[in-house]
Amino acid sequence: MDNLNTINPTIILVFGATGDLAKRKLFPAFYNLYLDGRMPEKFEIIALGRAENSDAHYRNHVSENLNEFSRNKIASEKEFEQFASHISYLQNDIDKEESYVLMKQKLDAIDASFGVRANRLFYLSIAPSFIETISNNIKKLDLAANPEQDRIIIEKPFGYDKSSAELLNKLLAKTFEEEQIYRIDHYLGKETVQNILAFRFGNSMFEPLWNRNFIDSVQITVAEEVGVEERGGFYEGAGALRDMIQNHLMQILTMVAMEAPTSLQADEVRNRKADVLKAIRRITPDEVEHYTVRGQYEKASIKGKPIAGYLQEKGVKDNSITETFVAMKFYLDNWRWQGVPFYVRTGKRMKEKQSSIVIQFKPVPHSTFSFGKEGMMPNRLIINIQPAMDIRLQFMTKKQGLSLSLKPAEMVFDYFSCSTQATEAYETLLLDALQGDPTLFMRSDQVEEAWDVVTSIQDAWENDKFSSLHKYEAGSWGPEAANELLARQGHSWASNTLDAEEEKLRKKAEKADKAEKDKKAVQTKQVEVAADGKNF
To answer: Is 248 a catalytic residue?
Structure first.
């Protein structure tokens, strides 16, 4: 266990403390860190909200939410009361300077009680439109004047396109140094995502194969069973490209494709990630339709229950062309990955919830077996991020018996076999922010490069000149066009378990067997017709 008692006392200020993120993720994360002994010995959490509230009432609100959303429920009232004694509520109107004057007075009072000027962690769990106002007021009152002690956490979306992201970076740079700004993407805090670096650079058996000479293709999938639910109005201004591809999937891609860092220092790791984003080949406007597929879910019946289509969701325009599904193919123009396709896809109302990375290795150059390469499943390394948390290596092996025939097999490392309760992503990220470690947070150049990757796609779709919107049934794996995107190079979307892959292989074998029988039947018929003609 890390000893955090040696770092400075810390004051955490949560803007938007009455919002959904605070109740579901932030306070449960702080509570679990507290139970694990990972919070500083002296800390205070100031919950900021527009509504009038008392400390006691807000602490009760936190208690109710912990019992609903925290991985550790409240088992001891005494223990919770000790944690809650560090929480206070401060009414705050983001637009009014006097609210920040009161904030400064409270910060000064806490510093006096600690006997030292505390670290300050500002968490902005608010709409992006409020960032400028908050940043300007923090600067005006010198609330974050110490780069070594004061930090700000910004939630996504970080901008709506490249130009807005650049403007936001310039705005924040007026108040904060770059090392103070922590742009958070909760996917980077997930155990299995972090393990990509350990898996790649901590083992000698895979890294020599991790290149264009041995890897055939890479797939990254983040699929959700749920629709937009009550967030239709928000989603109309976002869409799957902005909401998922530009941040979550781009960040996962960098972890898979990056070069080995010389150390785990924050800038060294982030430099290698930025290199990947710069190497992604930009898709030109007239290539958008060839390299991308966008879709929108339609109503369907799932397990006998009617499911609304996107156009029927609350807050969605009747004629909306907002995409709820995206699949695309990227190439990286560098020495390691030249010519290897990276397929990414994300969507709502998909068949199942699944976040996974599939590394597919090249086939054997020549098959010794009578059925040839067609009867063999590709060797794959699968990293399941959620809801399953495991790493699977799939390969071919001999079936038991006297004949020499093959079957797929796999070796599995399951996180849940090591621990029944994994830490939440926000716990990891908040702990890093408390310690001043920005490794898992995005730097300004990473954000801007990620936006640059999708800019031409955004423009083409918004102009609706180069790409059609494909409909797909809720509860499916997306539009057929997404399968065709891979089929052009002889690929298909891989399943994240062996059972599903074996079923696909069985169907493929049955189809090939039927085709062979049909071919023989036609040949036999041709011989018979020829013979009849000769006899006649």
So the answer is: yes
